[in-house]
TrEMBL record, chain A:
It comes from Roseisalinus antarcticus. This is Sarcosine oxidase, gamma subunit family. It holds the Pfam family SoxG. InterPro entries: SoxG, TrmE/GcvT-like.
TrEMBL record, chain B:
PANTHER family: AMINOMETHYLTRANSFERASE, AMINOMETHYLTRANSFERASE, MITOCHONDRIAL. It comes from Roseisalinus antarcticus. InterPro entries: 2Fe-2S-bd_N (IPR042204), FAD/NAD-bd_sf (IPR036188), FAD/NAD-binding_dom (IPR023753), GcvT/YgfZ/DmdA (IPR028896), GcvT/YgfZ_C (IPR029043), GcvT_C (IPR013977), GCVT_N (IPR006222), Sarcosine_oxidase_asu (IPR006277). Keywords: Methyltransferase, Oxidoreductase, Transferase. The gene is gcvT_2. GO terms for biological process: methylation; tetrahydrofolate metabolic process. It holds the Pfam family Fer2_4. This is Aminomethyltransferase. Residues 613-883 form the GCVT N-terminal domain. One of its GO terms (molecular function) is methyltransferase activity. Residues 515-599 form the SoxA A3 domain. Belongs to the GcvT family. Its EC number is 2.1.2.10. Residues 904-989 form the Aminomethyltransferase C-terminal domain.
From TrEMBL, chain C:
Pfam families: SoxD. InterPro entries: SoxD (IPR006279), SoxD_sf (IPR038561). This is Sarcosine oxidase, delta subunit family. GO terms for biological process: tetrahydrofolate metabolic process. GO terms for molecular function: sarcosine oxidase activity. It comes from the Bacteria. It comes from Roseisalinus antarcticus.
């Protein structure tokens, strides 16, 4: 049985960027502020602690150091001045968790109806879904580390959910691919 | 009497004895036992009492179909009623008690009902308790309540934990008998992602018990080899103690896994409810044997032939010293042979068929077992245990030809495929007249999202009762599913002759016999009850079921269904397929409530949303009010203070000095884009496009059918950006509403929205000293001239970047300050410190409500209820006449919406100063057609106002605004009416002087 | 318990991740409309026993509304498509007539 560790992350800078994702200036602006490529549909791109998450067909979530957010917003605003978009600071609206361990798929499977098997959810894939009774985005950074983003107000609920699921042990359903 | 044999029992580990208690008696069994086999092994045949007549009941079956042996399991917090002894694995220290009797299992007062059974026919309760009416409340209902229910409910919280698990698989196979195993092997070898579940703790199903040979080896060996092969496949998941509970749409299946019932000391969850999405489902759920309907067939000692065989083969238990086998088919002969091989006495095989023949029958005869053909059991005799049976001609009326002493009857009325899961999601059945059962109709299978059959049923469950046929059928099914040729394992079992249907034994049995023939053991439904229902006009099987309660017990008619149906069809003179079956519904057998709740209990029963200031509120002993999933402080009572006192104190402190309110839960949605102004004008009834940057405006939002759905203050942030405040409950709903219109109607608009509700902590600083407090924190330019009512601006307070809105929901000078949520607590602490000199007082939602009512401000959900338009509330001023369109405009033009008789908002003031009851109605002259008082208005908000020192209320009244000073009468619950005067809804500072300072 | 493919994210969404939104392809009638037209828009629905076009929101996912063609009897799904259209796409209509020969759209 492999242990799964749940850790609430320190506050992270987060920017919601809505716009036409096919506009080259948008991708360029994102890359400039956090160094990440534009992720494909249903994917997350990351560079170190920074990441860009595909949240919807016209929405990205940029992760970056919190101190960099005001400057990043200014730069995005300037880069996309001529193009209809919305960029806002949501750093305080959400909480980030990391879920680490080879058994993380079994832990998540207790809480989300999404298919979190290796075939459907490989590293790099992002899924917005339901975690028990609340919304969450789960993103597999590596085969043994997932990150989960939920709304700030339900942080304690989500933390308790994850600990409950992890504490109950492995199901043995998801096995590492041979 | 039943007993444990010295040898035998393929599932038993005799080296590991286990102690348990039944009704306080210490008993002993072995590892591998079920509670049922352990009880039988200790001679305990009597296990319970029936529900209606309290008849003594013994074990009938050996598996999930058992109707009688329901026990209270465990004690204290782990007490659980209605646990089936046949599916309860024995563990050391198990404690069970029998149910439905008083004072004891052996002597039960309720058994008097059995004497009265002549007077308790089908529909008795419906017929009896209708008249006279007054008896219902004082006699009938208490009586029924006392007798209702099986078993004892636990009184303590369940200490165990449960979980659910979502799994997506290519192929789910339900049933781990030889068909299920063969299906899994084929699919596993083909590389499919397979999950195979088996409800018992053992693989192989019936084949090992029946002495089947597969691929030249005993079934047990073939099963062992196959399971080993499957265990080595990484693409196959195997689970025992996992029952397919329900099959639903689009490949959704629930599987109920019992993890620690057999090992209560083990760590981890007790049950796991799997939520499985399967690409395809294969049901290999086997079949269940049917009882025979003869008089006294419910006496303890009368059992299914297959169960008698199981007990001897699996657990080395003899169900009786002298067994009579009664049957209409060849399979039951296997029981006689098994008993004989175990050295037990089979007194006779009573075969209802006149000329049966086959290898099994010949073998029985060769062993010297007496075989009576064309005969049946006329009556079984005995009380708490079987003593004898009389033998009669099956073709006759039951005259006894001889009486045979026996303590066990092994009966078989044939087998019925387990089609429950096939039927759950729409699979249809067809009647097989030759073998007398409903079988799945493969041309009418359940279909999936692609419109193609989503469930395949195979093996015995598909009507192929013999092992060789079952394996061939499974191979065929898997060939179709996998698209490659699958070879069946080769099974050898004895050939069987045809069965002859026997629905009544003997076929000419008169009423006295039929009144003793049980169809449904648990609910005490007899052949005579179903026949009575038919005579009384119940033709539909669904109605008969409810009238007689046939099949409505916890076993859901697994044994009684087909026999009951056949009895009904005979009584109606119709063919069985014409009568049809009742609907099979999930779950297949009862599942625990804990597994349904899973993790959702205690602290995480529901998500509890917390504001950034939640911890401060909690530390201060806030009395909470749930608002959606949020918790908001209702008030902050001090030591010894009542909630009402606290609310009054908070209001007075705010109106006289300064108060603080956590308004973080209010919705905050940004609307941005070149078309945002146009969109805002459609969204709100007001004109929002003309709102200057830096200003705020109170706005109303209606649904397309005109009703007021939300309100709040809108701020224009810049040229193309608006910030919309919504009610606490409205944030998600209104954001979804905006997105709906933007995505589905006005998708050409260039507008983006974002729900920023949780990004900010928002704090209202309210009262005459509010400005001074903010200035102490470094706020500048906040004077009345520089920062007017309904202005907003960005500034820094206590070194925190903040957005301040000069808006008021209390009528006082008021500033709402928004800061990033993570800085909210710092600001709150700074405000408390800065305001200490002014007696700054945090207040809760009740003070908020009272203060807004004193000012006549409406509250969504109080003054509105989904049928109210803004015009009803005197809010016509907030509806732009200049706009061509807004959501709800057309609907408000409908005649009913423009009706001058719609009730209108007014203030209400009781003459005696009391507080009107919430929801109270204003009474009008006359009565309705139903004899109720006519009404002319109702109370929507009502409070004690500490500011005014009396009860104040708002309400909707017919022609209200035209009837100022008129006195109306309002009803109370079971009390006299209360008089109240119609007044302006603005009770406090009608000129607005207080907020404009 | 249905599953639909969200045409925006491409994931198979569970019914518990979705919110239903009633009949699709309604034409909005505003302040200038007649009582009859407005009644039809606001209240009258096809509610067919068979092929139906309906609105779903991927509310626990990308937040987008999409449209689905589904048989209300068998729950067969003929396809899902973006909400920004007034008519079902031709490939979906072709699929429906392929599966339900002789079928004709109501309304």
């Amino acid at each position: 049985m492999s242990e799964v560790t749940i850790r609430k992350q320190a506050p992270r800078g987060m920017i919601t960027l809505r716009g036409d994702l096919s506009v080259p200036a948008l991708g360029a602006a994102c890359a400039e502020v956090n160094g990440c490529d534009l992720p494909a549909r249903g994917q997350a791109a990351h560079a170190g602690e920074a990441a860009t998450l595909w949240m919807s067909s016209d929405e990205l979530l940029l992760l970056l150091p919190q101190a960099d957010v005001p400057d990043a917003l200014t730069r995005i605003g300037a880069a996309l001045a001529g193009s209809h978009h919305l960029a806002v600071d949501v750093s305080d609206a959400r909480t980030l968790f990391s879920i680490e361990g080879a058994g993380l798929r079994d832990v998540l499977g207790k809480l989300t109806p999404a298919d979190v098997s290796a075939a459907a959810w490989p590293p790099g894939a992002l899924r917005r879904t339901r975690l028990a009774q609340v919304a969450a985005a789960i993103w597999l950074r590596t085969e043994t580390e997932a990150q989960l983003i939920c709304f700030r107000s339900v942080t304690d609920y989500v933390e308790a959910l994850l600990h409950t699921a992890a504490k109950a042990g492995q199901v043995g359903f998801h096995r590492p691919l041979r | 009497m039943s007993t444990r044999l010295a040898t035998g029992g393929r599932l038993l580990d005799r080296r590991r004895p286990m102690d348990f208690t039944f009704n306080g008696k210490r008993l002993r069994g072995y590892a591998g036992d079920t509670l049922a086999s352990a009880l039988l092994g200790q001679g305990q045949v009597l296990v319970g009492r029936s529900f209606k007549y309290h008849r003594p009941r013994g074990l009938v079956a050996s598996g999930a179909e058992e109707p009688n042996a329901l026990v209270n399991l465990g004690r204290g917090a782990r007490l659980e009623p209605n646990q089936r002894a046949t599916t309860t694995e024995l563990f050391d220290g198990l404690t069970a008690t029998s149910q439905n009797h008083w004072p004891s299992l052996e002597f039960d007062v309720g058994a008097v009902n059995a004497r009265l059974s002549r007077f308790l026919p089908a529909g008795f309760y419906y017929k009896m308790f209708i008249h006279p009416r007054p008896l219902w409340k004082y006699v009938y209902e208490p009586f029924i309540r006392h007798s209702a229910g099986l078993g004892k409910a636990p009184t303590e919280a369940d200490p165990d934990t449960y979980e659910q698990f979502h799994a997506h698989v290519g192929l789910l196979i339900v049933g781990g008998g030889i068909s299920g195993l063969q299906a899994a092997l084929a699919a596993g070898q083909a590389g499919k992602h397979v999950m195979l579940v088996e409800q018992t703790a053992h693989w192989g199903g019936r084949a090992p018990v029946d002495g089947v040979t597969i691929d030249g080896m005993p079934a047990d060996d073939w099963v062992k080899n196959t399971v080993e092969a499957l265990e080595n496949m990484p693409n196959v998941v195997l689970r025992t103690r996992a029952m397919g509970a329900g099959v639903y749409d689009h490949g959704f299946v629930t599987v109920y896994e019992r993890l620690t019932d057999h090992a209560p000391e083990a760590e981890g969850p007790r049950h796991r409810l799997w939520h499985i999405r399967a690409g395809h489902v294969v049901l290999a759920s086997g079949a269940i044997e049917r009882p025979l309907s003869f008089a006294g067939n419910d006496i303890p000692g009368v059992m299914l032939a297959s169960a008698v065989r199981d007990y001897v083969e699996n657990w080395g238990v003899s169900c009786g010293d002298r067994t009579v086998v009664v049957t209409n088919n060849d399979d039951a002969y296997r029981t006689a042979l098994a008993l004989r091989h175990a050295g037990l006495e089979v007194v006779a095989i009573v075969d209802a068929r006149t000329t049966p023949d086959g290898p099994l029958l010949r073998e029985a005869r060769d062993l010297g077992i007496r075989v009576l053909t064309g005969k049946g059991i006329g009556a079984a005799k005995g009380g708490k245990s079987l003593e004898s049976v009389t033998i009669c001609a099956q073709a006759g009326e039951g005259a006894p030809l001889e009486e045979i002493a026996c303590d066990c009857v092994a009966m078989s009325g044939g087998w019925s495929p387990v089609v429950h899961l096939w039927s759950h999601t729409g699979g249809k059945l067809t009647w097989d007249a030759e073998r007398c059962f409903f079988r799945p109709d493969p041309t009418r299978a359940p279909t999936g999202a692609d419109g193609q059959p989503s469930v395949t049923i195979a093996g015995t469950a598909n009507g192929h009762l013999r092992s060789a046929e079952a394996l061939c059928d499974t191979a065929e099914a898997m060939t179709a599913i996998l698209g490659s040729d699958i070879q069946a394992a080769e099974a050898q079992d004895a050939d069987e002759g045809p069965l002859v249907p026997v629905w009544l034994m003997p076929q000419g049995a008169g009423l006295p016999l039929r009144q003793k023939m049980w169809l449904d053991y648990q609910n005490d439904v007899k052949v005579s009850d179903v026949q009575l229902a038919a005579r009384e006009g119940y033709e539909s099987v669904e109605h008969t079921k409810r009238y007689t309660t046939l099949g409505m017990a916890t076993d859901q008619g697994k044994l009684s269904n087909i026999n009951g149906l056949a009895t009904l069809s005979q009584a109606l003179g119709k063919d069985i397929p014409k009568v049809g079956t009742t609907t099979f519904r999930p779950p297949y057998t009862p599942i625990s409530m804990g597994s349904i709740a899973a993790e959702a209990r205690g602290e995480i029963f529901q998500p509890l949303r917390k504001t950034p200031l939640h911890d401060w509120h909690a530390d201060r002993g806030a009395y909470w009010e749930p608002v959606g999933h949020w918790r908001r402080p209702y008030c902050f009572p001090r030591d010894g203070e009542s909630h009402a006192d606290a609310v009054a104190r908070e209001i007075n402190a705010t109106r006289q000095g300064v108060g603080l309110l956590d308004t973080s839960t209010l919705g905050k949605i940004v609307v941005k884009g070149p078309d945002a102004g146009r969109f805002m004008d459609l969204l709100y009834t007001n004109m929002m496009s003309t709102l200057p940057v830096g200003r705020c405006r109170y706005g109303l939002m209606c649904s397309e059918n005109g009703f007021l759905m939300d309100d709040g203050v809108v701020a224009r942030l810049d040229d193309d950006t608006w910030l919309c405040h919504t009610t606490t409950g409205g944030a998600d709903r209104i954001h979804a509403h905006m997105e709906d219109w933007l995505q589905c109607e006005w998708w050409d608009f260039k507008v983006f929205t974002a729900n920023l509700t949780e990004q900010y902590a928002q704090i209202a600083v309210v009262g005459p000293k509010a400005r001074e407090v903010l200035e102490k924190l470094g706020g500048t330019g906040l004077s009345a001239e520089e920062f007017k009512f309904m202005d907003w601006r960005e500034t820094t307070l206590a070194d925190i970047p903040a957005r301040i809105f000069r808006i008021s929901f209390s009528g006082e000078l008021s500033f709402e300050v928004a800061v990033p949520a993570g800085r909210g607590r710092a600001l709150w602490d700074a405000l408390l410190e800065a305001g200490a000199a002014f007696g700054i007082t945090p207040y809760g939602t009740e003070a908020l409500h009272v203060m807004r009512a004193e000012k006549g401000f409406i509250m969504i959900g109080d003054e509105t209820d989904g049928t109210i338009i803004p015009q009803d509330l005197g809010l016509g001023w907030a509806i732009s006449k200049k706009k061509d369109d807004y959501i709800g405009k057309r609907a408000q033009m409908r005649s009913h919406m423009a009706d001058p008789d719609r009730w209108q908002l007014v203030g209400l003031e009781t003459l005696d100063g009391s507080v009107l009851p919430d929801g109270s109605y204003a009474i009008a002259k006359g009565k309705t057609a139903n004899g109720q008082r006519n009404t002319q208005g109702r109370v929507t908000s009502t409070y004690h106002s500490p500011t005014i020192g009396r009860g104040i209320a708002m309400g909707l009244v017919l022609h209200g605004p035209d009837r100022m000073d008129e006195v109306l009468e309002f009803n109370t619950v079971d009390g006299p009416t209360v008089k109240a005067r119609i007044v302006s809804p603005v009770f406090y500072d009608p000129e607005g002087a207080k907020q404009n300072v | 318990m249905l599953t639909f493919e969200c045409p925006y994210c491409g994931v198979q969404a569970d019914e518990t991740e979705l919110s239903p939104g009633g009949e699709a392809h309604l034409t909005r009638h505003g302040p200038e409309s007649s009582d009859e037209a407005f009644e039809g828009y606001l209240f009258l629905r096809e509610n067919p026993r068979g092929v139906h076009f309906e609105r779903w929101r991927h509310s626990f996912g990308c937040g987008k509304w999409f449209l689905a063609a589904r048989c209300t009897m068998t729950l067969e799904v003929f396809g899902t498509y973006a909400a920004q259209t007034t008519e079902p796409p031709q490939d979906i209509l072709d699929k429906i007539t392929g599966r339900r020969p002789g079928w004709r759209r109501l309304g």
